Each structure stands twice: as C-alpha cells, then as structure tokens.
Amino acid sequence: xxxxxxxxxxxxxxxxxxxxxxxxxxxxxxxxxxxxxxxxxxxxxxxxxxxxxxxxxxxxxxxxxxxxxxxxxxxxxxxxxxxxxxxxxxxxxxxxxxxxxxxxxxxxxxxxxxxxxxxxxxxxxxxxxxxxxxxxxxxxxxxxxxxxxxxxxxxxxxxxxxxxxxxxxxxxxxxxxxxxxxxxxxxxxxxxxxxxxxxxxxxxxxxxxxxxxxxxxxxxxxxxxxxxxxxxxxxxxxxxxxxxxxxxxxxxxxxxxxxxxxxxxxxxxxxxxxxxxxxxxxxxxxxxxxxxxxxxxxxxxxxxxxxxxxxxxxxxxxxxxxxxxxxxxxxxxxxxxxxxxxxxxxxxxxxxxxxxxxxxxxxxxxxxxxxxxxxxxxxxxxxxxxxxxxxxxxxxxxxxxxxxxxxxxxxxxxxxxxxxxxxxxxxxxxxxxxxxxxxxxxxxxxxxxxxxxxxxxxxxxxxxxxxxxxxxxxxxxxxxxxxxxxxxxxxxxxxxxxxxxxxxx
Length: 505
Hints:
Helix content is 48%, strand content 13%.
C-alpha cells in the first residue's frame, strides 16, 4: 500500500499551479483527508468545461455552490441553471456550525462566512430578470433545428426569413412567424410562388404544428423583446466579485423543449458576440447546467449536434460549461470527450445495471495506484468526490478522492421576502421588465391583408356602380316596351293581311 509520505508529494505535484487557482478541498487517503494535500484547479483551465455527477443527496449542489463562490471571489461571473430552486442561498452569508469547523480543521482550510452578489433571472413569469430572445436572432438554421425540421421544412423556414428580410418585416415573436406561415399559404401564395417558388401547404402545416408545440411549452413567453444582452452576464460588483446569475427554472422541469431552446440560443449568442480570448489566464464566464439530462434526453440529434459543436467552440471565447447530473452516462460520449474537469460524487449500486454503469464510469477516470476506483465510487461520503482536472499544460491531474470544503454562503434557499428584496434592488430587473410589442411581421401583414380586403371591396363597389350606370332608365324601358308592342302588332296585322288575300283568291 502506498504511504502518506509518497501520497502528499504525488498530489501536490499533480495539482501544482504557477498561476491563480481555486481550492476545492483536501485529498483523501485510507478514508482520512490529508490537510497537506490540497486539490487545486488552475483558473487557466476552467474554460475546458466539466462534469459534476453523483447520486441524489451526495453533495452535488454544495459542490456547485463552492465552485461558484470561489469563481465569484476571483472576479469571474457565473451563470447557474437552478432547476430545483435550492441554490439561491449564495446571496446570503453562511453560518459556521460545529460540523463545518470540524471539516475545515481536517482539510486545513480557513472558513470565512460571506455572501456573494446575485441576480435572479427567469425564462417564465417567475419574479426576476426576464430573459427573452427574438426569432430573428436565432436565424433560420438554428430555429429549424430547434423545431427538428427536415431539409424541405427547413428550406421553407429559410424562405420565410428571406421574405421578411426583403420586405423589412422583423420576426420578433412566435405570432410573427405563424402569421407569415398563414400568409404564404393563403393571401400571399401567388406573391411567394412568383418570387421564391412553390411551397406545399402540407409542409407549412407541419411547421405550424411544431411552432405550436414550442409555444405550449412557454416559447410564447421566451420569444420577444426586450432581448437580453449577453454583456449583462459579465458584471463585477464594487468589491471585485463576479455576479452569480441564477436562472430560476423550477417551473419548467416539464418543458424540456423550452430549456433546450434557451440553452442553445444562449451558447450560440455567446459564441457570436464574445471576442476570441485564446489561452487566457481565467475564464470570462462559467455556466453550470443543473439536471443536464433535461437537455440531452429530449433533444433531437440535430440539436445535440449543434450543442456539441458550440461547446467545442466557446472554449476559445473564455467560456466554461459545466454539466451537473446524477449519472455521467446522461451526458453523450461526444460531449464527455470535451470535458476537462470531472467531479464525481458517490454512485449507488442497487441493480446489475447500476453496477455496470459504475464500472463504465470508473473506466473514464485516470488509473491510480492509490484507489480502486469502482469500489471507492460506492463508498464516498456526503461532500466527498473523486476529482480529476487539467493542469496548466493541459495534462490530466492525478485522480484524487477529495473531502470538499463547505460553502461559505447560506446552505439553504432564500425566503420570498429576500427574493423580493434582491429583485427590488436589481438594475437588470428594471431594464428588462417591460415587454415591448413593436410593429413587426404580424402587424405589417395584418395591415397588408386589411388593405387588400378594403381595395377588393372598393373595386367590387365600383364595379356594381358601373353596372348600375349602364342599366337603362325606367322611361327608356317603357319606351322600348311600347315600341316592341307596336312593332309586334304591325307585324301581326301584316301577316293576317297576307293570309286574307290568299284566302280570297
């Protein structure tokens, strides 16, 4: 068995950092934390993405809280997808209880209760900073992938965007694109066919049904203005701490389509708007996606491909993306391959399938002379986890079973009054609370259809009046009738005259 004397330099050398770093806790050997062997993650590598996994109740949420605190303290903003609603306590100072004092004594780290600057955000009608985006910002390709359209249907969406661009009609919300769909299959059918080609009504019908499905999951609330500006996620407070932006998602657990839509739009916009950072000393922003399986389980293949592509690309923008889930198998292998930091809390083995999953999980970690990975995975305690990361040279660090430090902020949720207090002080809530409904495709096409109806009615009225003006007057009708009678009588008399003469002969 390896000794403590060899273990300490093994960990310290593996987790050494020339630049700034965050400290997660102390490495464990033979079920005891070693206070002289701290597990540190270089800030320089935190844009390499990561995974935080483990069974329910093993400490994942507190680990995210610790990471967010450490990042905020270093002036790095955080964006947290709070599905369960148990992360908001980071806004308030924590309390040092006896079990925390005992833990921090073991891991040889100070504990300093403190709070962190927080913005509470929402995709729905919950209180907080409203997050919206316009249909135009998505573009035809991304919008088609969200709806899981085939090539033919995506081509029709491209035509819609092109038509609206040509006619200077903004596509802001879902009612805009629904209106255009109806227009190109009814009133504007000839206009579209003349300029853009024939479009099947069955195709537009399928697209419309897909949009209605998205609408029913809350898309009608998400799409619109005022569109959220990515720069507002990068704020630092007056004390140099990065803001922790918490998106409250407790009411959309049954709306995975909306969640996937938002995540994809957010990552795409970050990629488009953020400048290239290259190999920066620290990330610009770190995203934590709790209950990540909600994205992957319901996403189509095209949507997964898009997410995978963007995750590969945003690293160079200085953005770190961290997936939080119960089982690492919830995350596609193609995405797992992109991850640098892995924090694995305990897994439970109740069935043969569970044991197989644990074996597969263990194979994803570096080999270690100090641990039997598959055995330790099932015996880790609450607040303990396997950790492996990348050092500043991009080399995986040694696998370290780690006793994690405790959060320095409150380990409980905010009350409704505390939430209201934060929102009342927020500049962003005031900035985005107004819902703007300016003139866009819906209003423009409605006006165009009304004008066309009015013109048609006017033409019909003129035609009726013209017909009336060409009709003969009453005197003319009577005159013609009298003439007709007289003429008929003369004709009859002539005929009878001829017959009389013939009979006389």
